[in-house]
Structures are given as C-alpha cells and as structure tokens.
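Researcher: We're teaching a course module on how sequence relates to structure. For the next exercise, students receive a sequence and then see the predicted structure as tokens, so they can try to spot secondary structure elements on their own. Here is the exercise chain.
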Amino acid sequence: MWAELAVTTAKVVVVALAMVTTVPIMVWVERRGAAFIQDRLGPNRVGPLGLFQPVIDVVKLIFKEDVTPAAANKGLYYLAPLISLGVAMVTFIVIPFGAGHDVSLFGVPLRGLIVAPDLNVGVLYLLAIGSLSVYGIVLAGWSSNNKYSLLGGLRSSAQLISYELAMTLAVLGVLMATGSLHLSDVVARQSGAVWHWNAVTQVIGFAVFLVAAFAETNRLPFDLAEAETELVAGYHVEYSSMKFACFFMAEYLNMATASALTVTLFFGGGTLPGVTLTGWLGLFVSTAVFVAKMCFFLWLFVWVRWSLPRFRYDQLMQLGWKGLLPLATLNLVWVGIAMTMGWLR
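Model: And here is the predicted structure for the students to work with:
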C-alpha cells in the first residue's frame, strides 16, 4: 500500500513538473517561432537566444499590480482562473506516456507512466474534464462586469459547445475501432506499422479532431473569445498579475493536452513502427518518442497561429456545424463499414 502510494505520488510530481516546465518553454518557442516566421529576431537579450526571457516574464507577472474591478463579483472573479488552471492540470493523469507495462518500481507496476489508477474510462474522463474548462472562461467573462469580457465569454461558450460535438464523434470512431475506452489499448492497437495508426485508417476523423482541438484551446484561427482587435482581450481583459498568469498557463497546458491526446489517439502514442519496446529501456525510449511526437503538434499550434488569419464568428460556427459535424459523422459510417468488411484489424 505504502509503496503504491509513494510511486503514484512520484508520478504525479514528475508529470506536474513536466507540465509546468512546458509553459515557459512554449512561451519561448512561441516568441522565437513568431519571429522566425515573420523574419525578425525575437527575444535575444536575456540569456543566449533569449532563453531566460520566460523567467523575466514570470517575474514581471508576479510583481505586477493586482487590480480587481470594484463592480466585479469577487468570488467568481477569483474562482474563474483557478477553474481554468485546475482543469488544465488534471487532464494529463490518464494519458500513457510510454510503454513500460512490464516495468515495476518497488513491486508497483508503472503501467506506461499513467498517473491515475487503472481507469477503464480514460477517454470519457478526458472529454468530461476537458468540457469543464468553459466554466472558467464564462465565469471570468460574466464576473468581471465588463461588456468585452461578457462578449468573449459568450463567444467561447458557444464555440466550445459547437466543436466538442465534432471532436467527440471523431474520438468515437477511434473507440469503435479499438473496442475499449482504455487509452493504453488505443495505443496498443496502433503498434506494429505506420498504416495501423488511426491517422491513416481514419484520416477524416483525424482532420476533424485536429481542427476541433484548435477551437477547443481558443487558438488562432479560432481565438474569437479574445480577439484583441474586437474585444481588447476578451474574457481576461480585467485580469492582471497572477490571475492573468493562470489563464496564460491554462492555454499552454491545454495545448499540451490536445497535442498529447492527438498523439495517443491517432499517432500510436509512444510506439515506434516495427519496434517492440520492453523493460526500462523501452520505457525511456517510448517516452522520448511520445514527447517528440507531442513537440511536433505543439509547434504546429505556433505555426498555425502566425500563418492564418482569424475567422469571422459566423464562419467559425458554420465550419463547426455544417463542416466538421457532417465529416465526423461520415467518419463514423466509414469505421462501421470498414469493421464489418474486415478492413480494420
């Protein structure tokens, strides 16, 4: 019992530290990546290649004046950023980072570095917890007593609800083919060869999921909840100091979650095609492979942000309801036919 508690605590600490470390790294990648795409230098004064710039940003946010609007609903105003950050932090506990199902520590199996106990509804947990993020944004928009914040919160709630449907249907296609809600089973089914990856066998479902992931994380070209040119900064216009930092961290953690989930559901997780990974070496290699795949999608988020213009709101809603939803349904039909005909292993 104590050994299991110690191992679980260690996994929680390691994963939490990795997630928190991801934020400053992505801040640097975002700023340097934007500069690279726009043919300029970006941060290059604080440390080599501007590597210490995220540290300076954190220090600035910590010492920035914390202003609370006089007419705000203070209870909900303070609660909103905590909800956004908390939801972003707890989504990672069911994602299998590596192989390692035959590896144990102090007699406790590591099960591919999955933090949570053997949760047989891992995908449902992710979808359910992920949908709670809208509460933080809506509460922030309403409690600030600011018209721009309220409009940003309303936009975000409609956007997340619209795109969650298409995303859920895309995930349902993966679950139908796998026959299990275990994320480790989803990864195991994709092992062996590249053509076993769900991104190949369900290319429409993958495309729908990826586009919906951009919308769910409020990233360009779907950042209508912030839309600086229209809403100043949207739902967090009245937030400063560490309360703003919570929203800032939540956005990057949601990007990391979306990237990790994309790798797990559609790109074989930490598996390498044609390679069987076992033991401690397999655990380390598979974790490195998982992180490498995840980094590609994190870079994709940055690349798209600085390459595409923002959608109009009517275009955003039309794409979700008239574009992605029918395509996700079509993907479900394809999976059903392919399973009946024996085309999917």
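Model: If you want an answer key for the exercise: The first helix runs from residue 2 to 37. The radius of gyration is 21 Å.
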